[in-house]
Amino acid sequence: MEEIGLLMQGFAVALQPENMLLMLVGVVLGVLIGVLPGLGGANGIAILLPLTFAMPPVSAVIMLSCIYWGALFGGAITSILFNIPGEPWSVATTFDGYPMAQQGKAGEALTAAFTASFFGAFVAVVMITFVAPIIAGFALRFGPPEFFAVMFLSFACFIGMAKGSPLKTLAAMMLGFLLAAVGMDTVTGQLRMTFGSEEMIRGFDFLVAVIGLFGISEILCSIEDGLRFKGQRAKIDLKVVLRTWAELPKHWFLAIRSAVIGCWMGITPAGATPASFMSYGVARRMSKDPNGFGRGKVEGVVAPETAAHAAGTSALLPMLTLGVPGSPTAAVLLGGLIMWGLQPGPMLFVEQKEFVWGLIASMYLGNVAGLLVVLVAVPWFAAILRVPFPIIAALILTVCAIGAYTVSNAEFDIVLMLVFGVIGYVMKKLDYPLAPLVLALVLGDRTEEAFRQSLLVSNGDIGIFFHNWLSGGIMALGIALLAWPVLTWARGALAGGFGRARAA
Amino acid sequence: MTLAISRRSVLLGLAAATIAGGAEARSWEPNRPVQIVVPAGTGGGADQMARVIQGIVSKHSLMRQPMVVVNKAGGAGAEGFLEAKGARGNPHMLIITLSNLFTTPLATGVPFNWKDLTPVTMMALDEFVLWVKADSPWKTAQDLIEAAKAQRLKIGGTGSKQEDQIITAAITRATGAPFTYVPFRGGGEVAVQLVGGHIDATVNNPIEAVTHWRSGALRPLCVFDEKRLTATEKMTETQAWSDIPTCKEQGLDVDYLMLRGIFMPTGVKPEQVAFYEGLMAKVRETPEWKELMQQGAFNTTSLTGDAFRGWLTREEERHRTLMQEAGFLANPS
Amino acid sequence: MSTTTLDIAQAAGRSSQGVRRTAMEVATSLTLALVGAAAIWDSARLGAGWGVEGPQSGYFPFWIGMILAGASLANLIPVLRAKGAAAEEMFVTWPQLRLVMSVLIPTVFYVAAIPVSGIYAASAVLVAYFMMRLGEFTWRSALPAAAATAVVAFMTFEIWFLVGLPKGPVEELLGF
């Protein structure tokens, strides 16, 4: 096959010593970018992109894709150790990753997360290698109604997750939707709920909210139990990697299912964030022990990480074949391609074969290099937890402030972060669930937009969501998933003797 | 490590450049990193252009200090404009604009006007082309207009009450054919929605749709300019950019060009403006820039100083008229 | 780790004096209802109807505001009905609150200082303060750690990654 030959050629180029060195540098830089919440994969690559213009395009692509891998791997580290998701798709990883770290299993959680990321990304790269042309066409079928259906399904998968008071879950989710709506309405261009404030025009950025709700509030909660983080005494060495690996094969089905969800969401291109939530939701629902989720279950780390990285990687496919970036990081890479005189789109695979296969080869190798680097570093990462609380708390606060600021270079966002921290503290102590709030905040405006675009397309006919088998099928699946928990939910509310009308 | 090396090489290159350019007026130079504010999201046209400029400046060592791209997309760019407005007297901030320089304040009532900035230079003008699917029955703009009169068609575009929707409204005004405008987030997304058949036509910029044209998925009907595009290189088997008729030729009297310009905050010194004028002139001479202009079929008009101000004044008036006619102006409340 | 802070922490959980959970529940519900009301008010201004081509700008925020306000107010019922132990439960005891404030108050000052002093100087002071106040380190170890934090952060962001963060008079003096 021609493809295999080209791929092997790509490997030969990537394995030259200077390119290997670039790979290593790229991975290390990427991990650094992933760990610092202020430097998401997208900013990281954007910042380093101009540097690579001085290199030959192949070397530049190798280095950039290694930075990309490093950043993907690095995102899980702060989520697990400090409950601070550096990227939107790392949020679901905190649900079980952080409890694991609190129980002294930080090493296991990190190893599971890295391995899962590797697996998800690997599956996606294999898919890109062999079925790219077939799959690329599939993305074209996704118009606004199909997009809304996918969003609806993400919510449906996740909705059964909430524990505790249904009223509080509802309130938290609605608060998330409202926060997402602040700022400019993309459909009509009107400003909503800014109340005349120039700072509010920007809206509430997801990362600012999450850094506060998760990171800052966690510090406030943990000092109540004394000035320390839990789980700091666990003994960690490289053996933890092997021990965790011995356990992981039994989750093979979970990993494959999550990778499939991720690839699908990456191609559509709904992106890595809904993929991670959906995969987590499905894993919990299919589990024999759903109540163990959220309390430090390794499945709760494997599912979202696999899906997020399968999605993040397969998002490169619509970028290369259609010129539509599936993620912010991919969007910046897209700019880089144009700078090198390569026009992404259907003609890229025809006219720039060497480049495309070189890129794919570097994706394989970068993924492997990234896994090796981060696994070796697991004990070091986990050892951060042994730093005395006063130092680590001050450093976390600093890193959070920098992270909040860099999202849109606004000092006001640091204030917002602190406010969200206090809100998160109060909500946690009163058992308001944060997950529905975050889900609504991150997907809310895209969902509303897709809904309204669909109705524009159909001239206001709501039947458009069932106009073909694709969106109709996804909608039906979502409704079926919703119906089951709503029934139990309503029963619970009735038994409680209140809120009957609300639950319906 | 690579970082350290390339920084040093940048510095060395610069030392050489400074010696070579010693004869030129060196009255002012940036003494700290220069920010380019992009009032749009990552990956869009303005963002790409800013990053290309950043890449060119560092690759050819055109400036001693590094250049940093900062995206401030909130509120259709209002965030970026307000930031630049507030940075009075800061000579280390540039802002790259698109048509939202005019449309955002008019549509939202955000307190901002281009006169709150110092115009530096027009880098280029971006063209707009009317696209349909290659397998659609419409071969000319008139075919599309006639079809739209018979049955309401959908035109997709980027954002709301911005250039794409203004053009759509102008088409309706010129011909009486009603269109439903469907807003999306970015030009690439719009092009793919058209390829997928979810909308009937788009007014994408050339660079956003060129690859789908070349792959045979899309067909350009006409270009919204007074004269044809200049690039004569064959893009498909049979057609070059210059083969696309103007919309006026096809009886659709609408033209629209989008500004890609560089501005500074107010209160900066003339020699500081002159430095960036010179810098951008050097950028426009590089092969990378010419490559970008060629690929995107840009209109490479460039203006500075009073000519640029005059152009801005006329364009602002034109946008006000266009948006008033379309009913896009913000309520005075 | 200081023994005194640990003692406080142990005492903190047992103390029975503090903010009642009921009071916090009521306050939170009322705040959320207010947020909902604000959304309803603003959406009504924009138009919250269902136009010819689907919902208007204010449609979703309007109904979301309604549901939020409704759910929050409904949440008051079980809270106010609670009797016995549930009604006596503490949200936070005074000693616990003192611990929380020992971190929160310096953080508020930190955030307030950033626009004035820049983020690097403020972070250095925060690190030094936390080490000396919360963790009984002496200035001998606290000051170098603080300086190191500022310098490492500065090098990473300003020099290597070219990310501009808020800077103050100190950086100005050094010519950045």
Automatic annotation (TrEMBL), chain A:
The chain crosses the membrane at residues 20-49, 61-82, 118-140, 147-164, 170-188, 200-220, 322-343, 355-382, 389-408, 414-443, 464-484. The keyword NAD does not apply. InterPro entries: DUF112_TM (IPR002823). Residues 20-439 form the DUF112 domain. The lineage of its organism: Bacteria, Pseudomonadati, Pseudomonadota, Alphaproteobacteria, Acetobacterales. PANTHER family: BLR4373 PROTEIN, TRICARBOXYLIC TRANSPORT PROTEIN. Keywords: Membrane, Transmembrane, Transmembrane helix. It holds the Pfam family TctA. It comes from Roseicella aerolata. It comes from the Bacteria. This is Tripartite tricarboxylate transporter permease.
From TrEMBL, chain B:
The keyword Transmembrane does not apply. InterPro entries: BUG, Bug_dom1, TAT_signal. Keywords: Signal. Residues 1-25 form the signal peptide. SUPFAM superfamilies: Periplasmic binding protein-like II (SSF53850). PANTHER family: BLR4371 PROTEIN (PTHR42928:SF1), TRICARBOXYLATE-BINDING PROTEIN (PTHR42928). Belongs to the UPF0065 (bug) family. This is Tripartite tricarboxylate transporter substrate binding protein. It comes from Roseicella aerolata. The lineage of its organism: Bacteria, Pseudomonadati, Pseudomonadota, Alphaproteobacteria, Acetobacterales.
TrEMBL record, chain C:
It comes from Roseicella aerolata. Keywords: Membrane, Transmembrane, Transmembrane helix. The lineage of its organism: Bacteria, Pseudomonadati, Pseudomonadota, Alphaproteobacteria, Acetobacterales. InterPro entries: DUF1468. The chain crosses the membrane at residues 23-41, 61-82, 103-130, 142-163. This is Tripartite tricarboxylate transporter TctB family protein. Residues 29-166 form the DUF1468 domain.
